Amino acid sequence: MGIFKFNRAAGRHLNDEAAIEAIKHAGHPVPKAPRENIIKRAFKQYGLSQLSMAHVVVHDNTITIKGHAETAAQRDHMILAAGNIAGIDTVNSEITVPPGTPAPNFHQVEAGETLADIAEKVDADVTADDLRKANKPVLENEGGIYPGQTIRIPEA
């Protein structure tokens, strides 16, 4: 559980069918936050609907997610799927996890960074391939990383 900050100008710009209309990089004009039903459809596209997500609420630029995840990866993917939407700058995670589950570890991509650069910078002993695997399906659907995007740093 916790509050996580994101770059509101960066992320997936979703249309009314929750399809990705465009990827907004940091520095673009900030769009309005999408409606809750659009976000729920987007979660389905990322395969997150089968997780125990009980409740998603959007208020201004904040998404509150209530639910349960069995693993750190499931929890982190829910947080990232919500926060990497253009127009959202805060995710209030009320996702329960089993005792002993490690806290989320995220990194916001800077202009010019590659996964290899990020792997070298972070404290965890990870490779670019580890980062790619830890951020599926987001990186596959969005064609790689972009400035302002937040990604998951897995445990080594």
TrEMBL record:
PROSITE patterns: LYSM (PS51782). SUPFAM superfamilies: LysM domain (SSF54106). SMART domains: LysM. Pfam families: BON, LysM. Coiled coil: none annotated. InterPro entries: BON_dom (IPR007055), LysM (IPR018392), LysM_dom_sf (IPR036779). CDD domains: LysM. This is Uncharacterized protein.
